Amino acid sequence: MAHALSARLVLVGKVIRPHGYRGLLRIVLYAGEQASFKDVGSLFLKSVATGEIHEHTVISIRSHKDYFLMKLDGLNTRYDAEEHKGSEILVEKDALEREEDEFFWFELLDLDVYLDTGGYLGKISQIIPAKGNDIYIVKGEDREILIPATYEIIREIDLERKEMTIRDTEGLLDLNEV
């Protein structure tokens, strides 16, 4: 049963550490707005040490500096929260809602990336969250390319074909030369 559950879950963030003494968690979100987490009902914390998965209901979530503070049912003390330090935050795929032209990280990983002029660059191997926009790391045969996730660069994302097309902007690929 645990395998069936984990197949329906998607990684959306990570617990950094406890915050204060009342069971708050300091978290980083990989995508989406904090409001969407209150709407999912339950979320799951997966221990990176043991692999155990614990279900919780979101009581509150708010931004605080460069991260978020989240209160979950059943976590009332710093000790309760400390048990989940480093845990992955997962939600059921079916509970996720998105706007038009919005994509989740799990959908973008492993997409084939092409230039709009036809050249193949590689696959998205990692996504780095950044303040202005995410950065896609595209792993090609002989190099990694950093692509900013902006409307000016990303031309099309086709999940059915598992492809992303980007604009062949002058200097973009040159920025990646080391």
Q: Could you describe the 3D structure shown?
A:
- With 178 residues, the protein is mainly β.
- The chain is 11% helix and 43% strand.
- It folds into 2 domains: 2-94, Elongation Factor Tu (Ef-tu), domain 3; 105-176, PRC-barrel domain (SH3 type barrels, Roll), CATH 2.30.30.240.
- The protein contains 4 helices and 12 strands.
- Strands 1-2-5-4-3-6 form a 6-stranded antiparallel β-barrel. Strands 10-9-8-7-12-11 form a 6-stranded mixed beta sheet, with no helix packed on it.
- The radius of gyration is 18 Å and the shape is elongated.
Task: List the keywords.
elongated, 12 strands, Elongation Factor Tu (Ef-tu), domain 3, SH3 type barrels, 178 residues
Topology:
Blueprint: H1 2-7, E1 9-19, E2 24-29, H2 35-39, E3 42-46, E4 53-64, E5 67-72, H3 78-82, E6 88-92, H4 105-108, E7 112-115, E8 120-128, E9 135-139, E10 144-148, E11 154-158, E12 163-166
Parallel strand pairs: 7-12
Antiparallel strand pairs: 1-2, 1-6, 2-5, 3-4, 3-6, 4-5, 7-8, 8-9, 9-10, 11-12
